Amino acid sequence: MTLARLFIGVLVFSVMVGCQTVPAPIEDYSLARAAIDAARAVQAARHSPGYWHQAEEAYRKGRIFYDDRDYARAKEQFVRAKFAAEKAENSARLIRQKTGDIL
Question: Which among 17, 28, 46, 52 is least surrounded, fewest beta carbons within 10 Å?
């Protein structure tokens, strides 16, 4: 009987450990959203379309993974989106400054 209890205990423990997941990347989600909003504010889609497209695509994928509760992949995409959006914003600001466009 003790061997059966031990087996059940190990099985229950294995199931509990296997059910642990990566926590939801709420902070990364928020930071990516803020970076995209900042890039949008300086018209990055017009002045830096390459980086802007990368940011939007990564953010879109991140939201899909987030909705599917694949938090590890969502976090990765949100970090990519934030990075690309920041590059798009900086590039757009630089281009606008060089052309004399008002920020």
Answer: 17
What does the buried/exposed string (b/e) look like for 8-43 if buried means 16 or more CB atoms within 10 Å of the residue's CB?
A: eeeeeeeeeeeeeeeeebeebbebbbebbebbbebb
- Write the CA distances from 24 to 1, 30, 37, 79, 94, integer angstroms: 41, 12, 21, 13, 35
The C-alpha atoms of residue 44 and residue 26 are separated, in whole angstroms, by 24
Please give the model's pTM, rounded to 2 decimal places.
0.76
